[in-house]
Design goal:
The structure holds 2 protein chains of 2 kinds. By secondary structure, chain A is of the alpha/beta class. Chain A folds into 4 domains: 174 residues, Rossmann fold, CATH 3.40.50.300; 64 residues, no CATH class; 161 residues, Rossmann fold, CATH 3.40.50; 75 residues, no CATH class. In chain A, strands 6-7-8-3-9-10 form a 6-stranded mixed sheet, sandwiched between helices. The radius of gyration of chain A is 25 Å and the shape is globular. By secondary structure, chain B is mainly α. Chain B has one domain: Orthogonal Bundle (ABC transporter involved in vitamin B12 uptake, BtuC). Chain B contains 12 helices and no strands. In chain B, helix 7 crosses helix 9. The chains are: A alpha/beta, B mainly alpha. At the A-B interface, helix 2 and helix 3 of A face helix 7 and helix 8 of B.
Chain lengths: 521, 306
């Protein structure tokens, strides 16, 4: 099935005020926009949250889901657009206002006090009598849990509870303060499959009792299983709004979610691939299952997949953060352990992490110190850093890579995302590595910076093999010589990036509908 | 040892443990809200001087005692301004308060060294004081000792049974969670600092109004620091603080008695005992941390919202 689904921007309609059933929606977002610097996190987003319905908000990491929900929860203010609460325009200038408007957030990182009991957490911050009557409070919590089909011991301490139970406490907290709209931010990420089933049962119960639910996720099967309506966010825009029963398969959802439209073209000439720089053979751990791949100097292997399907442990293993079983990973022909035993390994391997503010740079250091963080070769004499030599080199690199501001004394936090990423690339490429692992290198960057980063990666390919981990199919197609698709800890398939037939199947592979067993090349 | 020796010794332990108990309870209250205040010593000595002066000029030790609490609150409010308004380093600010308090109190107090003020005298509680053994140990003191018996109970009830206590503890455990439920974390930390400072001031006043009735330089003699250590020893529980305070009071009373009895042991060694015990006790309590109720966000500043 290679057909393209036309992209449908829903606000092209006349913006009718009522839902299909003719009721006033609990919450209506109208043309919400929010930008950070030159990047739109949300652009012209319109959504309705209805009573008794589960709205799934689907999108890749960085698509703008979290920003949108922070706006709804009163943590961020939109640049433009209006929120309507039961038909009345409102401004959620603080979290308290959103809470009293009935918005309840179930965060990914629970906001619970570990040292306190379930009851204490639920009653924390509630108005009422000064004297706490534990017995009555426990009974109230037990009754509420029972009503929604949850099983929580009100007297238990949070630190004793499993992740699933903690989440139930979060939910009870919101139900207790009579929130009418519950927003779940990737709620199943921390749950076992069984706990996830329980959660879905609870959510069903909640909509039966008239709550409205927003379910943020990128797990397609869960969305299909639970949602009534699905809205898809891509690059900050709602690209699709559909009723769940109109979606034929998860593959269709995957395609709608990742999109294929080409925004940017770079000139990629195939190079003669040379020796193998990375070879992974049958690597398995708690997430990964029999991962096999190889990268040659002169090529880019693009690894696509929905986040959380094993990309992280794979990258961490290759980059030396996680120990693999013996003989599974070979870098430059050496076994993993031998490669990383050599103190000079960092000359050969460069890691460009997804988290460029946290893992790749130190925000409070200037560009020179950030440059020296990983690249000290030639700038050392015994224990002493030769800062002057390094400074001259770094200044030239900053010029070459057109990093702005072109000021070696600028602090990392003063740079925009795109310039910081270019700085990281400049630093890593300076060492002339043989193997580069780049993780979501253009996430959150604007078009111009994306183009720069792409061209830099293509240039680096001449001397190195690159493993590009990305959730953006367009990026993988633009840069890769070969493409691998990951699903559920496996590499579903690896194929050449001019194989149109296979490319059309990427969404299905990402959704786990085709496994490597029945389509081995 | 015979009862004639042990009963007076234990009674003395209670008496010299009382100022430490006040200060320890104050520090527990402050730390429960998530603020580390190393200025206990400073707040105590300011309280001691204020109590002494007010009592001397008004003739009312009760008024002096209350004034000492207020002075302790005002002193620790400086710590609050640094940490809660300007997000300054809590350790440095606390140390500064200790140094400032000692310097200020000794400077203002210089003309009064050796002078006396009306203070509290012991009286036996009817019935209770006639209980064998317990009576003479616990119920033949001044009224401030009896007041100190009630404070741990009230504090535990406040912290665990009232909405405000729950919120105060949440501010010390996980400020983000408290904020998410709409609580004003900064306000509760102010309560922790100023409330705790009140008790520290009272502890100081006990020294100048009941333990002695006169003013000398360096009256607190490191008791504030012992209180800081005792908070850890007590695992942040007011009940355990009582035990710890009397333990230290006992050591202090013991070394005084040994000095008086003309022992061969050097007085320097004896004077060192309570502080050596502090180190020992800290090592001991970091071994078994299981039941500790240390606030998770202790010492972590909270950015004010808006």
């Amino acid at each position: 099935m290679g057909h393209r689904i036309p992209v449908c921007y829903t606000n092209c309609g006349d913006g009718e005020k009522l839902t299909m059933t003719g009721a006033v929606p609990l919450i209506r977002l109208e043309n919400i926009s929010k930008s950070f610097g030159s990047v739109y996190a949300n652009e012209d987003v319109s959504l309705e949250i209805e009573e008794g319905k589960i709205l799934a908000l689907l999108g890749e990491n960085g698509a703008g889901k979290s920003t949108l929900m922070s706006i709804l929860a009163g943590q961020l203010q939109p640049d433009s657009g209006t929120i309507y609460l039961q038909g009345q325009p409102v401004v959620f200038s603080t979290t308290e206002k959103a809470i009293s408007g009935g918005i309840g957030m179930v965060y990914q990182h629970f906001k619970l006090v570990d040292a306190m009991t379930v009851v204490e957490n639920i009653f924390l911050g509630q108005k009422g009598a000064s004297w706490l009557r534990w017995k009555e409070m426990r009974r109230a919590v037990r009754d509420l849990a029972e009503l929604y089909g949850m099983d929580v011991d009100p007297a238990a301490r949070i630190s004793e509870l499993s992740m699933g139970e903690r989440q139930q406490v979060e939910i009870l907290k919101l139900l207790h303060r009579k929130s009418s709209i519950l927003i779940f931010d990737e709620p199943t990420a921390v749950l076992t499959p069984r706990e996830a089933d329980n959660l879905f049962a609870t959510m069903k119960k909640m909509i039966e009792l008239g709550k409205g639910i927003v379910f943020i996720s990128h797990k397609l099967d869960e969305v299909m299983a639970i949602a009534d309506n699905i809205a898809i966010l891509r690059r900050g825009q709602i690209v699709d709004k559909i009723a769940a029963d109109k979606v034929s398969s998860t593959a269709e959802l995957a395609e709608r979610m990742v999109g294929r439209e080409v925004l940017l073209k770079v000139d990629r000439q195939p190079l003669e691939p040379r020796q193998i720089v990375l070879k992974v053979t049958g690597l398995s751990d708690s997430v990964l299952k029999e991962v096999t791949l190889s990268v040659r100097q002169g090529e880019i292997l693009g690894l696509v997949g929905v986040a959380g399907n094993g990309q992280k442990p794979l990258v961490e293993t290759i980059c030396g953060l996680k120990k693999p079983t013996r003989d599974r990973v070979r870098i430059l022909g050496m076994d993993w352990a031998r490669f990383f035993k050599n103190p000079e390994w960092d000359k050969a391997l460069s890691y460009i992490p997804e988290d460029r503010q946290g893992l790749a740079t130190c925000q409070g250091l200037d560009l020179l110190d950030n440059f020296l963080l990983t690249t000290r070769d030639g700038f050392c004499k015994g224990p002493w850093l030769q800062r002057e030599t390094a400074r001259n080199k770094a200044v030239r690199v900053i010029e070459d890579f057109d990093i702005r501001p072109p000021d070696i004394n600028a602090f990392a936090w003063q740079l925009s995302g795109g310039n910081l990423q270019k700085m990281v690339l400049a630093r890593e490429f300076f060492r002339k590595p043989r193997l580069i692992v780049a993780e979501q290198p253009t996430q959150g960057l604007d078009i111009a910076a994306t183009e720069d980063v792409w061209n830099l990666l293509l240039k680096a390919r001449e001397a190195a093999g690159i493993l590009l981990v990305t959730g953006d199919i367009a990026e993988a197609l633009a840069l890769s010589d070969r493409i691998g698709v990951m699903y559920n800890g496996r590499i579903v398939e690896i194929f050449y990036s001019d194989d149109e037939e296979k490319i059309d199947l990427i969404p299905q592979m990402m959704a786990g509908l085709r496994s490597s067993e029945n389509s081995k090349t | 040892m015979s009862p004639e020796i042990i009963i007076p010794l234990l009674a003395a332990a209670v008496q010299s443990g009382t100022p430490i108990l006040y200060a320890t309870l104050g520090e527990i209250f402050t730390e429960k809200s998530g603020v580390l205040n190393l200025g206990v010593e400073g707040a105590m000595i300011i309280g001691a001087l204020t109590g002494f002066l007010v009592s001397r000029y008004t003739g009312s030790p009760a008024l002096g005692f209350l004034a000492a609490g207020v002075a302790g609150s005002l002193a620790t409010a400086l710590h609050g301004i640094v940490c809660l308004w300007f997000l300054g380093n809590q350790v440095v600010s606390g140390l500064a308060l200790t140094i400032l308090g000692a310097g200020l109190a000794n400077y203002i107090g210089t003309p009064f060294v050796g002078l006396s003020a009306p203070g509290f005298s012991p009286f036996a509680v009817p019935f209770l004081s006639s209980i064998p053994f317990l009576g003479p140990v616990f119920f033949q003191h001044d009224i401030l000792v009896y007041v100190s018996y009630c404070i741990p109970v009230v504090m535990v009830l406040f912290l665990t049974r009232t909405r405000f206590g729950l919120s105060l503890r949440a501010a010390g455990e996980y400020p983000a969670a408290a904020t998410a439920t709409g609580l004003n974390v900064i306000a509760y930390r102010w309560l922790g600092i100023v409330g705790g400072g009140f008790f520290m001031g009272l502890g100081g006043a006990y020294l100048s109004l009941a333990y002695t009735h006169l003013w000398t330089t360096n009256l607190t003699a490191g008791r504030g620091w012992i209180a800081v250590a005792l908070v850890i020893f007590a695992f942040w529980r007011p009940g355990r603080a009582v035990f710890g305070a009397y333990l230290f009071g006992g050591i202090m009373a013991l070394q005084l008695r040994m000095q008086a009895s003309g022992t061969q042991i050097s007085s320097s060694i004896l004077l060192m005992l309570p502080y050596a015990l502090t180190v020992f006790v800290l090592v001991l309590s970091s071994w078994r941390k299981g039941t500790s109720e240390e606030p998770a966000a202790l010492g972590v500043n909270v950015e004010p919202t808006e």
